[in-house]
Amino acid sequence: MTKHHSSHFATQAIHANYHPEAHQGALTPPIQISSTYAFETVEQGGAAFQGENERFIYARLGSPSQQLLEQRFAQLEQAEAALATASGMGAITSAMWSFLKPGDELIADLSLYGCTFSFLEHGLKQFGIEVKYLNLSAAENLSRHISDKTKMVYSETPSNPNMRLIDIEALAAITNKHDCRLMIDNTYCTPYLQNPLSLGADLVVHSATKYLGGHGDLIAGFVAGKQQDIDEIRMVGLKDMTGAVISGFDVSLLLRGLKSLHVRMDRHCENAQKVADYLSNSPFVKHTFYPGLDHFPQKQLAKQQMHQAGGMIAFELDATREQSAAFVNALQMILCAVSLGDAETLIQHPASMTHSTYTEEELMAHLISPTLIRLSVGLEHIDDIIADLEQAFQSVFAADSGLTISA
Ligand code: 3LM
Question: What is the helix, strand, coil percentage profile of the chain, to 5?
Fold first, then answer.
């Protein structure tokens, strides 16, 4: 970046790598939807295919606006390079297919987003890659099980949906001693709240569908890391194996979403802290899992590796699964929907929805309680979010128990 050089996140998210004067002064980068790029000669095209010039070839390999998005995102993630993909699953699968082969082992944390778990079970395992699940919140479990066969260690932190943290630095200290990549899913935090690469991870993946887009109007993903790894994922995992290419329209929506990421995240965090305080004081709530709470079991680790506690909360009611569902159904403004990180507050029941890819037994083995409720705290006025939760509690439980909550 020349004219706007800055190391501040907010400035990079708005200006990095784009100069209006190179685009007839357009403030907003043009949407590029060309699928293919014309060459002046066969020789020039041939050289492009050999990587001997910088020309674009075909949109499955990249496009100018996608390149801008990737360069900007790489700065935010403090990475040498980044690759934008058609979905978070496209990022995860393109990266894993690039670096794992039959006979290799992948070690994953116990708690994973449902479709990631499904991919390991129905994708990698079917093609001869061994998958082992460990509780990576205790890094010594990794020291005990890592071997020459282990080529990748994979974890979310905080984990979806149960908010367990893993110590990225502690895991990196172990994987660095082996020929093994540490890949962290940073979807819940975004690079504004947590920087896994600077803590020693080799690769970071995201569902950009969530906070990065931020408005519930796109599906996309990112993977970021060393230039050589990203080139490999682009030219093998994505080009040949998944084909999970981002569309030009979604590139444009993501560039727009990134510009306000820091402002939105600050408010998500502020609102979530207040909602978590409210829930943890509610007589109807048994457990509230939020890294910003004093009684959060990994509070110290949260302070060490997260800049703020985030916008996601998990909680369990002092109630049956049916009563918990009745509570969700009684909400009026808060929407019952999967996905997260949108302006709207979204609530869902992982065992029935996002994590229904796990059997009942698997849910227990993977530390996902069947009565857990997940809340993605949005950007509405905090009083309205809390008022909606409270009226739902009152309408479902207070009549039964005789309890009322004073405002
Ligand atoms: C969800 N999650 O509601 P896409 N990694 C993490 C995620 O949370 C997700 C992905 C990767 C949800 C989606 S469930 C049907 C809806 C931590 C997605 C995958 O491919 O962009 O959806 O990202 O938890």
Answer: 40, 15, 45
Q: Whose CA is nearest to atom 8 of ligand 1?
A: 113
Which pair of structure tokens corresponds to residue 206?
């995201």
Phi, psi of 222 (to 5 degrees): -140, 150
Backbone angles phi, psi at 94, to 5 degrees: -60, -40
Residue 194, classified by CB atoms within 10 Å of its CB into exposed (0-12), middle (13-18) or buried (19+), is buried
* Mean pLDDT computed over every residue of the chain: 96
Identify the residue whose tokens are 């979604």: 250
- Per-residue pLDDT, 399: 65
Say how far apart CA 192 and CA 206 lie, in whole Å: 13
Prior bond to 102 cis, omega within 30? Answer: no
What stretches in the chain show pLDDT beneath 70?
A: 1-5, 399-407
- Residue 92, CB half-sphere, CA atoms under 13 Å: how many? 27
CATH of domain 261-401: 3.90.1150.10
Instruction: Read off the pLDDT of residues 97-112 as tens digits, 9 standing for 90 and up.
Output: 999 999 999 999 999 9
Which residue is closest in CA terms to ligand 1's atom 3?
A: 339
CATH number of this structure's domain 9-30+62-259: 3.40.640.10
CA of 177 to the centre of ligand 1 (A): 31
The DSSP annotation for 320-335 comes to -HHHHHHHHHH-SSSE
Domain locations along the chain: 9-30+62-259, 261-401
| Alpha-carbon dihedral sign for residues 94, 99, 105, 111 | negative
Instruction: Give the active site residue among 37, 55, 58, 60.
Output: 60
pTM: 0.97
Which ligand 1 atom is nearest residue 90's CA?
A: 20
Cβ contacts of 206 within 8 Å, gap of 6 or more = 88, 91, 185, 186, 187, 190, 212, 221, 222, 223
What size, in residues, is the chain? Answer: 407
User: What are 302's two structure tokens?
Assistant: 């949260």
pLDDT tens profile 147-175? 999 999 999 999 999 999 999 999 999 99
Instruction: Output phi, psi for 343, to 5 deg.
Output: -65, -30
